[in-house]
Specification:
This protein has 17 helices and 2 strands. It has about 325 residues and is mainly alpha-helical. Strands 1-2 form a two-stranded antiparallel ribbon. β1 and β2 form a beta hairpin. This is Tetratricopeptide (TPR) repeat protein.
């Protein structure tokens, strides 16, 4: 069995790798002492300890953070998370309930309490707890994910759809529709999936996040023509990130539309900041023959004087 290494940044800002045992023996005690009275540095180090599963040391840091910050929501929840990692479920529940009592609107508290109920096999209580979050915020991504998981465990498929549709009627709700679309696609009902994906995209003010999710789902399932259909209607070259353009271009390449794929990528690139333009260049470099492909442009005016639409408006 190979030795496990921990990668960390030392006090000089250099990335260092060290065997796990050496890190625990030398670095953790040193950093705990160094950050003991520096609550922000200790908080960041405590998160690293949880990530790397040094649970006992994370508990020491979590207790100290409560001393430094007092019983604020994030410190209480973090202490509960460390209890959860240690398998001390009763103590975790007690700490989360303390957080919820002090901060009744704590979505994070309800989510972690639901995780504990689910771990204990009490999926009904997990659902009831998650409803506290989703009744207020039907677009809560993690809450919806956990709700679906617990419903499916109990085979409450019809109840799940009823709840999603109920939450989807709330003003500004769109993730419930997205979730119904995902479930429909898993059931092989592509028509219904597309209908609910379209509803989500029409309702959301987070168009880029929604379309990224939809194109990801369709692309992974191999529905490239439906992905192209969605992008033709909803994609904008001014989106902040190039990832939807990458999904769009991949679908176009699969369907032998290289010229259009390259045009989409280049149009997207024009609106990106300099540090992100390189991502598009790297994507294009992986396309065989990209440099030899002519760039598609808008069609010239028609002889009768009626301007033709740009190619991406009429592409079929």
């Amino acid at each position: 069995m190979s030795e496990e290494y921990i990668t960390f940044t030392n006090e000089h800002g250099h990335a260092v790798q060290m065997p796990r045992a050496d890190y625990e023996e030398k670095i953790i005690p040193y950093n705990l002492e160094r950050f003991w009275d520096d609550r922000e540095s200790l908080r960041q180090f405590a998160v690293d300890l949880v990530r790397d599963k040094f649970t006992a040391h994370a508990a020491t840091a979590a207790d100290r953070l409560l001393e430094l910050y007092g019983p604020i929501e994030s410190a209480l929840i973090f202490r509960a998370v460390v209890y959860m990692q240690a398998g001390k479920w009763d103590k975790a529940k007690k700490k989360i309930r303390e957080a919820i009592e002090r901060y009744p609107d704590s979505d994070t508290g309800y989510l972690n309490l639901a995780r504990i109920f689910a771990y204990e096999g009490d999926h009904l209580r997990a659902l009831e707890t998650l409803e506290q979050v989703l009744s207020k915020d039907p677009n809560h991504e993690t809450g919806l994910k956990l709700y679906v998981e617990n419903c499916l465990k109990l085979e409450k498929n019809e109840e799940l759809l009823d709840k999603l549709q109920q939450w989807g009627e709330k003003e500004s709700a769109w993730r419930p529709q997205l979730t119904i679309g995902r479930l429909a696609m898993q059931e092989g009902n592509l028509l219904q999936a597309m209908q609910f994906f379209s509803q989500a995209l029409e309702r959301t003010v987070e168009r880029e996040a929604a379309l990224l999710a939809v194109t990801g789902e369709l692309g992974q399932a191999g529905y490239v023509y439906q992905l192209i259909q969605m992008c033709e209607k909803y994609w904008l070259p001014t989106f902040a990130q190039p990832y939807i353009a990458f999904n769009y271009a991949n679908a176009l390449l699969v369907t032998d539309q290289k010229a259009k794929a390259l045009a989409i990528l280049r149009e997207c690139q024009q609106h990106l900041p300099e540090e992100k333009k390189e991502m598009v260049d790297q994507f294009i470099e992986r396309i065989p023959g990209a440099n030899e492909q002519p760039v598609m442009t808008e069609q010239p005016a028609a002889a009768d004087g009626e301007a033709k639409k740009a190619w991406w408006k009429i592409w079929k």
